[in-house]
Design a protein that fits this description.
Pfam families: HIT. The protein is of the alpha+beta class. The chain is built from three helices and five strands.
């Protein structure tokens, strides 16, 4: 794999979390968020800020990656809805959030970054966390087909 452009101090350039799947141009991780099991990120490996910084074929590649992760999340986690977002206000490195949402999650129907409206039962969260190995396998399957 060729060396990608990195920016010193950027936490997404220097990932320290386990990667579920990695290609030449992007990586997929499962976010360690106890309240949102199944929360994933697709992270562009080179340090760029915006989709418009990518060549047209790379924009298509990244979009396809997001759709594949969404498909794996839907298949395994069975959410009511999937939120897909690219913000980058805190970490200005191109990445997409893929977040399974449920009517009983802490923030539903608001974004996960809003004020919590409730607390999801721990038994429900534990059951969702138990699906994470299957989700990792499904993500790998979606990219290795």
């Amino acid at each position: 794999m060729k060396e990608v452009e990195r920016q010193p101090g950027c936490e997404l350039c220097d990932l320290t979390v386990p990667v579920v799947w990695q290609g030449e141009k992007f990586s997929v991780i499962q976010v360690d968020d106890a309240a949102y099991p199944g929360f994933c990120r697709v992270i562009w490996r080179a340090h760029v800020r915006e989709m418009s910084d990518l060549a047209p074929e790379d924009r298509l590649l990244l979009n396809e990656a997001v759709y594949r992760v969404e498909g794996a999340v839907r298949e395994v986690m069975q959410p009511l809805k999937v939120n897909v977002a690219s913000l980058g206000n805190v970490v200005p490195h191109l990445h997409w959030h893929i977040i399974p949402r449920y009517a009983d999650d802490a923030h539903f129907p608001a974004p996960v970054w809003a004020q919590a409206a409730r607390q999801t039962e721990e038994s429900v969260l534990a059951a969702r966390r138990a699906l994470l190995p299957a989700l990792a396998a499904a993500i790998a399957k979606h990219f290795n087909e």
